[in-house]
Amino acid sequence: MAITTQDIEQVLERDIRPILASHHGNVVLQDFTDGKVYIRLTGMCSGCPSATITTEEIVAERLKAVFPEIEDVILDTSVSDDLIAQAKAILSQHHTR
Where does the source fall among the domains of life (predicted)? Predict the structure, then answer.
């Protein structure tokens, strides 16, 4: 039986999000393609120096334990379009004063 994004979301919700929430963070499933899970950490976990360790030791470990077919969990560390838009809005306000 093939893994679905809903299957992954269930594990994230049950096993991983409570851990991240205790650190005021969260995880967003961006994609699941060819055995690779792509995630983004949000909240206080976003940009945290331990984000890579969190991805490897919490997210990847738990997902792979439930779904051995998962080959890798890849952390997206790029800046989101929403954050760029917010920064531009703030900067444009400061330049009009």
Answer: Bacteria
pTM: 0.80
Domains in the chain: ranges and CATH: 5-95 (3.30.300.130)
Per-residue pLDDT tens, the chain, 97 aa: give them: 799 999 999 999 999 999 999 999 999 999 999 999 999 998 888 888 898 999 999 999 999 999 999 999 999 988 777 777 777 888 888 766 5
